[in-house]
Amino acid sequence: MASEKESQRRNSTIKARKSGSAGVKSATVAAVGLIAATTLLAGCGSKDAIPADDAYQGNSGESMAAPSSSESASGAGGADNGAKARDTGKYRDGTYSVDNQPDPSGKAPIDVTVKVAQGDITGVTVVGHTSNDISKKHQAAFIEAIPGVVVGKPLKGLKVDKVAGASWTTQAFNDALDNARSQASVQ
Question: How is the beta sheet containing 110-117 ordered, strand by strand?
């Protein structure tokens, strides 16, 4: 009888150890998972996020700054049409400027000046405004490449794809082209 009680006690001890061990393992796995998730999510709220250079980034439809525009003195007379004018597809010769055009991040605006003659772009100047080193690199590459992409092309309907790996600067440039078309449109 003593050996039977001892056998039952041993079995109870083994069961307790097994269930205690399983509980410790489960708690350990849960703790490791929680630490991993916390580590992965730690940078998600960073206010200084740097834009990636991939096909999945894009415009959220929001921007932190509204674009301002002005027609330069060399543009064909008339008042500043700005965003109130519509694109008619027929354009006055002249130079049209869009200042402080924000990119989708709202942190790296550009100034764009487009020269138009007989409906074609005859010159383009882009000035970048960013303090972020990565954005500076992308903007500089874009600024160097964009004249070769747009000069000689018709202004009507022109939209450029990602230039020099600068997705957000390209988006800001396309938005500036829309604004310039409105400014240049013959109403």
Answer: 68-71, 94-101, 110-117, 120-128
Please tell me what DSSP assigns to residue 1: -
Q: Name the pTM for this structure.
A: 0.56
112 — phi, psi (to 5°)?
-125, 130
Say if residues 183 and 81 touch (Cβ distance below 8 Å). yes
CB distance 64 to 102 below 8 Å:
yes
Q: pLDDT by residue (tens digit) across 12-27?
A: 555 555 555 566 677 7
Which helix (H) or strand (E) segment is 104 a member of?
none
In the numeric block, which tokens belong to residue 3? 């050996």
Q: Measured between alpha carbons, how far is 79 from 162 in angstroms, rounded to an integer?
A: 33
Residue 151 burial class via C-beta count within 10 angstroms: exposed 0-12, middle 13-18, buried 19 and up: middle
Per-residue model confidence as pLDDT tens digits over 148-187: 999 999 999 999 999 998 999 999 999 999 999 999 999 8
